[in-house]
Amino acid sequence: MAESDKPMIDYETEMVGTIDVPERDQLDLERLTDWFATNVEGFEGPISYSKFKGGQSNPTYRIDTPGASYVLRRQPFGKLLPSAHAVDREYKAMAALGPTGFPVPRAYGLCENPEVIGSKFFVMSLADGRSLWNGALPDYSPDERREIYHAMIDTMADLHLKDPQAIGLGDYGKPTDYCARQIARWSKQYKLSETEHMPKMERLIEWLPETIPPQHESSVVHGDYRLDNMIFDKTENRVLAVLDWELSTLGDPIADFSYFMLNWVNEPDGRAGIGGLDHAALGIPTREEAVERYVARTGYPVPPMDWYFAYNLFRLAGILQGIKKRVIDGTASSAHAKQMSERVGPLVDRAYMFALDAGMPA
User: Fold this and answer.
1) Angle of CA points 321, 95, 308, to nearest 5°
2) I need a labelling partner for 284 at 20 to 30 A (CA). Which of 159, 237, 273, 290 fits?
3) Taking the CB of residue 266, how many other CB atoms lie within 10 A of it?
């Protein structure tokens, strides 16, 4: 079946909301209650809990009490790759950004003692708003779509304008050579979770480090900025909370922005991809308009998109290869993990094509 002939998934039905906690994902509520009582300001039990449908990487739970609701993110069960599933980094990013007024959930506490529930975890506030998955925003008017996309672009620009040193994230990563470090990291992670030989991936691993564009600025980068990793206000088309900071670090804001811009070339699949749609008719900023808005707000240069698209698709393939390996090992957290793992090959093919467009010798 051709990629474009596959039935579109209704992600907002499949991935939004909670389910009863499967037996293999259950937590020790007695120990967890004791931890909450000691570490979460204003906590009053008892606890009840459920598991969010989404969150392929780090299992995510809704924790309800009579007076408040929280979100708990933990590392997955099973053997972990080095530096993967860094819930402590997620917590640190949100704890630093929250006091600046940047839209993130309130960070309540981090537990690095695996004896409480079997792994590291952190607790944050529940952002009570709209979770959107379909980049085409079929339930909205053209004006509303434009407002939502402008909010995403502006929020990302505002993140990239934060001074890491001033907000306590000066030691959050190395500020320079971001793309080189990312390429090295995901090449290594890919090799550690490799399940088959892919010559095009090997070629990208060779070529990308040799052709990195100069890094003009350094900022906090999110690493996975897209529509379904944020919560929108219930009534206003503004970002209420940016979620999933697992891949965040210090680095090249243009690399971060160009990852978000991949949505303009990714095929519509019921998720963030809006490639090939009539953006003007839908009220969605065109690719050129989106870049222009970001550049105007930040003052950064217009990126060489073909190279950055190749880089970001390569990076995404490395990330999903880890999920693919966990599917094979039987430790993947989400029902959709297998489907995501099947995207590795097509991602490598597209990364290779953009690399050719960027000047890689065939």
Assistant:
1) 40
2) 159
3) 21
Show the CA angle centred on residue 185, arms to residues 184 and 191, nearest 5°. 90
Q: Is 130-357 the same fold as 3-125?
A: no
The packing angle between helices 305-329 and 344-357, to 10°, is: 160
Q: What is the dihedral angle through the alpha carbons of 343, 348, 349, 354, rounded to the nearest 10 degrees?
A: 120
Long-range contacts, 230-233 (Cβ 8 Å, 24+):
230/103, 230/152, 230/155, 231/127, 231/128, 231/129, 231/130, 231/131, 232/129, 232/130, 232/131, 232/132, 232/148, 232/151, 233/129, 233/130
Architecture of the domain defined by 3-125:
2-Layer Sandwich (3.30)
Contacts with 145 (C-beta within 8 Å, 6 or more apart), sequence order = 137, 282, 283, 284
Residue-by-residue DSSP string for 211-280: SPPPP---EEE-SS-SGGGEEE-SSSSSEEEE---TT-EEE-HHHHHHHHHGGGTSPPSSSS--TTS-HH
Cβ neighbors of 231 (< 8 A, separation 6 or more) are: 127, 128, 129, 130, 131, 239, 240, 241, 243
Distance CA 10, CA 155 (A): 26
pLDDT digits (tens, 9 = 90+) for 120-160: 999 999 999 999 999 999 999 999 999 999 999 999 999 99
* Helix residue ranges, H only, 118-216: 142-160, 178-192, 199-207
**What pTM was estimated for this model as a whole?**
0.84
Q: Report residues of the chain scoring pLDDT below 50.
A: 1-7
Question: Please, are residues 37 and 287 in contact by the beta-carbon 8 Å criterion?
Answer: no
Evaluated on CA atoms 311, 316, 317, 318, the torsion sign reads positive
Q: Which CATH class is domain 130-357?
A: alpha beta
